[in-house]
């Protein structure tokens, strides 16, 4: 997947949670703000587990570096 496709999805207004399906049929859900994903030219750092802090903010507890060419599709969750 080209980086622009993922970036455009992250920049949708309003933000809509989505699922990334990978080439090995695993999935990664991006549930909260687009800043939880870092997109580079060939890879993306994607959230795996979230936690809520004392102020009600969502924080990324675990993440994974994913090669963009392993992202097969992006599907809205709502």
Strand-residue proportion: over 45%
Mind summarizing the main beta sheet? 3 strands, antiparallel
Q: Which structural class do you get from the secondary structure elements?
A: mainly beta
Return residue spans where pLDDT drops below 50 for at least 5 consecutive residues: none
Identify the strand order in the major beta sheet.
Answer: 2-1-6
- Bulk shape: globular
CATH uppermost class: Mainly Beta
Which H/E pattern describes the elements?
Answer: HEEEEEE
Which CATH architecture would you pick? Roll
What is the radius of gyration computed over CA atoms, rounded to a whole number of angstroms? 12 Å
Write down how many β-strands occur, each being a DSSP E stretch of 2 or more residues.
6
List the total number of helices: 1
Could you report the average pLDDT, rounded to the nearest whole number? 95
How many structural domains? Answer: 1
Multimerization state: single chain
Could you characterize what this model shows?
- The protein is mainly beta.
- The protein has one domain (3-76): SH3 type barrels (Roll), CATH 2.30.30.
- Helices cover 10% and strands 47% of the residues.
- The chain is built from one helix and six strands, in the order H-E-E-E-E-E-E.
- The chain has one helix at 3-10, and strands at residues 18-22, 27-30, 38-39, 43-52, 58-67, 71-76.
- The chain is globular and about 35 Å long.
- The model has no long low-confidence stretch (mean pLDDT 95).
